[in-house]
Amino acid sequence: QVHLVESGGGLALPGGSLRLSCGAFGSDFAITDMGWYRQAPGKERTAVATITERGDTHYADSVKGRFTISTNTAFTTVNLQMNSLKPEDTAVYYCYVKTDFPSIQDYWGHGTQVTVSS
Known about the structure:
Elements: E1 2-8, E2 10-12, E3 18-26, E4 30-39, E5 46-52, E6 57-59, E7 67-71, E8 77-82, E9 91-101, E10 105-108, E11 112-116
Parallel strand pairs: 2-11
Antiparallel strand pairs: 1-3, 3-8, 4-5, 4-9, 5-6, 7-8, 9-10, 9-11
């Protein structure tokens, strides 16, 4: 069992920056993919940025050049640096982890609110 702990988020001005972090805790597990998704009111949850254990990254077109995903060397913590924030970035952001040991399973954080407003 993997437990995800998210931190960061909050309120930012348009053009400002925020940083999200998510740590994976548990015993005897191996993560293959990590990432961040977001869900705005009345909309579906969509991928923002993901990263594999090989370091391959993928970004949603709407955040390319503004957001950067990174991990620690142990691949148990995933960060999302968000720069040049826009009001349309307002959403609940969810940490995502996929494991392949002891089983193939997806895990989600509880979500953290990001609000971009003047």
